[in-house]
Amino acid sequence: MKKTLYKFIFFKILGWKITGHMDASIQKSVLMILPHTSMFDFFVGMFARGIIGLEMHYVAKKEFFRFPLGRWFRWMGGAPLDRTGNKNKVDEIVDIFKKKHVFRMAIAPEGTRSKVDTLKTGFYYIALKAQVPIIPVAFDYGNREVRLGKAFFPTGNIDEDLKQLVLHFKGAVGKHPEKTFDVEKFLAS
Hints:
Elements: H1 2-13, E1 17-19, E2 28-34, H2 40-52, E3 58-61, H3 70-75, E4 78-81, H4 89-99, E5 103-107, H5 122-130, E6 134-140, E7 145-148, H6 158-166, H7 183-188
Parallel strand pairs: 1-7, 2-5, 2-6, 3-4
Antiparallel strand pairs: 6-7
Helix pairs in contact: 1-2, 4-5
């Protein structure tokens, strides 16, 4: 029932579509979400997750998981992350991957909703250390499309791997186009 409602709202009312496919047999992965220019991206992701019908997750600071919203954040796929002290965030998230049977973690490598010229690389090193694929997912507001890419296993050559991954996002425009990550500029550098 909930999936039908999500489809009606997302496809019919909002006019979005989902292209590509997520392989259900891949139970652990890093979902590379780009571009990320608006808080509305959370709702695009929520609808896509509900329609695709697979568990998908995210990490957030542990303070979000306290009363009264803690249960809701966990129900929405959240995993708490302790950001205090000098703990290595990559290793901490890799530990979460090790503890979970299913963990498809969505992350925006821009690290902010503001305009950036470079991507943060934590998502890449998480996938490399956890030995899981990266699945590129474009939130393209220009075409009202969530575009799912193919699973990509990092090789350890981050420069070449990032060039391959960002190709998936060519032409994708964020809700705020002026904040959209410039794929062409990145590839030319």
